[in-house]
Amino acid sequence: MSLFEDQEYEWRDTYFVMFKSAKRPQLNQVRDAIARLNRRFELTNLTSDDAGRFEAMTIRSPEDFAALDISFLEGDDVIDQRNALCKELRGCARDADEEQRLAQLPQCDVRFDVLHFERLDVPGGEEEPSFDPGALLAVVETLAQMTDGIGVDPQSGTML
């Protein structure tokens, strides 16, 4: 079940992790890496393809009043998005690290979509929700590291 179908959550952002298809990780690798980030993350809806490679998962982070839906995408839409990002980010590198990642971007042919949701209500109404993007940033960074990929905030046109 997507978090779009859960009335307790509202979509806030979508980030990408662009990478080469040869670097697509196994579901158990992604699960273990995400679980190490925060032992309080609740991982659900874990799916893989027939070869055991990561397809999708949902992460709930109750202390952040946030959740993430992560899904693997490939195909023409990914290539079109990559080409648009290459044009948009051309000349925007601020340092050598960003120049290297920008040079790597045209070779990326798949991506993870990381959809960030805010929890709207708090059970019992005892706490004031304090939405924190920390889970999103940590997960995007972890996925980028494990795939030798590039984290992208498409709304701002920046690489992470």
In the sheet with the most strands, the strands line up as 2-3-4-5-1-6-7
Q: What is the arithmetic mean of pLDDT? A: 88
Helix fraction bin: 25-40%
Q: Could you tell me how far the N terminus lies from the C terminus, measured between alpha carbons in angstroms?
A: 28 Å
Shape: globular
- Proportion of strand residues: 25-35%
Model regions low in confidence, pLDDT < 50 over at least 5 residues: none
Instruction: Label the structural class.
Output: alpha+beta
Overall radius of gyration: 16 Å
Q: Characterize the biggest β-sheet.
A: 7 strands, antiparallel
SSE order: EHEEEHHEHEE
Number of strands: 7
The total of helices stands at 4
What does this entry look like structurally?
With 160 residues, the protein is of the alpha+beta class. The protein is 30% helix and 32% strand. It is built from four helices and seven strands; from the N terminus they run E-H-E-E-E-H-H-E-H-E-E. It has helices spanning 27-37, 76-89, 96-104, 134-147; strands spanning 9-19, 42-48, 54-61, 66-74, 110-119, 150-153, 158-159. It has a seven-stranded antiparallel sheet with strand order 2-3-4-5-1-6-7. A hairpin with a 4-residue loop joins strand 6 (150-153) and strand 7. Helix 1 packs across helix 4 (134-147).
